């Protein structure tokens, strides 16, 4: 009896996971020949390829970069894991069409528990809810609107970087040090206050949310039971069924965190309700969100306006928006800026040029103004070059294809995971961007015509879902590096032989003690 049941099940699996994928494979092969690269890694797919690449070459992106370098007309890399296909778009024409179309995709699940942590926030929201959130938040992330945030970013930077003196001649784990700053910036720009005297799940809120995000990533990457559930039930259901003890505890911990943030929101809401009509309101993200919420609640009470479901703001959404910014903006900015400091140590002549430009534009760190940040052309070129060679986000956030469809002439089946590269690596196709591709040379970005094709260099992605926090990231990086170069000469850590790059959550160096410091003066 069992045999009769198992045979159709087996045949279904062969059809669903092997035959269908083989048909797709031959379809691409016939149409595109070697303009599409095929890779196979059982079970792990793309994750397996990047692990292999790291083990073999000390760089988890090496295999993918090599594919791009070898073929200027490469369209995409298609990776099979035996169950599913993952498509990484390379061709900029395809990338452009893909990034401008939000309708055929939804965001992939991400780390374990992502939907509980930040499922209602901007990174994960879709359709009209996403459009409503993006339009509410866009203005506050504009370069000029961030002007008011400069004093607080300066203050946080100074407070944490002053502590670096204690390292004296020892190597500095600079990325960890910068994570303190970038977490605090997100907290203070979001809440308008620091949460340092508060505890949730026995930890400081910034520590707990970092741990939750990191453990969610690690669990997804390393847990075999969860992996099996993903294969059998798919990403929509896997996190809900047959939960292990770890999963149950994790979800409970996240719920505590959400409730903790909602309590802060509730207190602020009460304060604002009493004061917003009579006094000036600080323009932090929480106040901005709550003013909109108050307007909405008032209209609902007076019955003067009806709202569609997608327009309604909830406190849980606001809590998830905080975790979203933390998830998207903390590690990315700390790692990119840390890598910049390592590059300054590695190339003293570039350090001198950046430092000279800063000294011309800014007399003294304490007097640094928002306008001064726009005077740093060489710094801008240097930062872009760091993103070209060591982008913390070398791929856009993966989407799932909601239906069978074409991106131009490229077929994307329903259920495929699809993403794209943010940086091109072919010298023949992009001669000015990729000339002497392995040489770190910020000067290439001083040439006005370096980007011949907008989609060849999109470290913050492009299209409607590009990075909303890119100006904030640049402001933070500038303020941190200005402080560092006003106070220290940055020197290499001579005990480090190799610096290897791997995907943790972001693409970054595995070695952490990247630099040493020589104090030049106290401000
Ligand atoms: C060096 C630092 C950063 C890099 C390299 C970076 C890069 C990116 C990339 C590549 C995307 C993906 C877009 C896509 O999938 O098409 C993205 C999205 C996003 N980033 Fe950033 N990011 C950085 C800093 C920040 C900061 C500081 C914040 C906010 C505090 C932030 C908030 C977001 C959000 C909310 C999204 C999703 C936008 C949406 O879907 O509408 N990022 N970022």
Topology summary:
Layout: H1 2-32, E1 36-40, H2 46-57, H3 62-70, E2 76-80, E3 85-89, H4 92-100, E4 105-107, H5 114-118, H6 127-138, H7 150-161, E5 172-173, H8 174-191, H9 205-222, H10 224-233, H11 245-275, H12 285-301, H13 315-346, H14 348-361, H15 377-389, E6 399-401, E7 405-407, E8 410-412, E9 417-420, H16 431-434, H17 470-487, E10 488-492, E11 501-503, E12 507-509, E13 513-519
Parallel strand pairs: 1-2, 3-9
Antiparallel strand pairs: 2-3, 4-6, 5-13, 6-9, 7-8, 10-13, 11-12
The chain binds protoporphyrin IX containing FE.
Protoporphyrin IX containing FE is lined by residues 122-123, 134, 186, 324-325, 328-329, 332-333, 336, 392-393, 396-397, 422, 459-461, 465-469, 472-473.
Please explain how this structure is put together:
- This is Cytochrome P450 monooxygenase CYP5008A2.
- Heme binds at residue 467.
- InterPro entries: Cyt_P450, Cyt_P450_CS, Cyt_P450_E_grp-I, Cyt_P450_sf, Cytochrome_P450_Monoox.
- Helices cover 51% and strands 10% of the residues.
- By secondary structure, the protein is of the alpha+beta class.
- It has a domain at 1-107 and 395-439.
- The strands form 4 sheets. Strands 1-2-3-9-6-4 form a 6-stranded mixed sheet. A 3-stranded antiparallel sheet has the order 5-13-10.
- β7 and β8 (410-412) form a beta hairpin.
- It is globular.
- The relative contact order is 0.15.
- The mean pLDDT is 92.
- The structure holds protoporphyrin IX containing FE.
- Protoporphyrin IX containing FE is lined by residues 122-123, 134, 186, 324-325, 328-329, 332-333, 336, 392-393, 396-397, 422, 459-461, 465-469, 472-473.
